[in-house]
Amino acid sequence: MLKILYFASLRETLGLGAEDLPLPPGVHDVGGLLAALVARGGDWQKLATVKNLRYAVNQEMARLDTPLRAGDEVAFFPPVTGG
Questions:
Q1: What stretches in the chain show pLDDT beneath 70?
Q2: Most Cβ neighbours (<10 Å): which of 16, 44, 49, 61?
Q3: How many CA atoms, within 13 angstroms, populate the side-chain half-sphere of residue 18?
Q4: Closest Cα partner for 29 from 58, 57, 54?
Q5: In this predicted structure, what is the pLDDT of residue 79?
Q6: What is the Cα gyration radius of the chain?
Q7: How far apart are CA 30 and CA 11, in angstroms?
Q8: The predicted structure's pLDDT at residue 33
């Protein structure tokens, strides 16, 4: 299982902040997971259009080619601004 976290506007768009998901067959990295989530259709397709989407695996910044293993925590978050 993967623990997937969604932050900021993604949480609002998708209507959930977290989910547990079995590691999809054939998914080996963050990019593969992102593609599998986008393939759900509907609001999930918006994940593919977020500019500068950030990723973290086990609370460490990650890239699309960062490998995934069962038990990992994956976070998706859009860039945020603050003052």
A1: 81-83
A2: 44
A3: 8
A4: 57
A5: 82
A6: 12
A7: 18
A8: 97
Burial class (CB in 10 A: 0-12, 13-18, 19+), 5: middle
* Strands lying side by side in the sheet with 60-61: 18-21, 2-6, 73-77, 54-57, 60-61
How open is the CA angle 79-36-42, to the nearest 5 degrees? 75
Cα–Cα distance, 57 to 63 (Å, whole number): 9
The Cα diameter of the chain in Å comes to 42
80, 12 contact by CB (below 8 A): no
Sign of CA dihedral 9, 55, 61, 63: negative
DSSP string, the chain: -EEEEE-THHHHHHT-SEEEE---TT--BHHHHHHHHHTT-GGGGGGGT-TT-EEEETTEE--TT-B--TT-EEEEE------
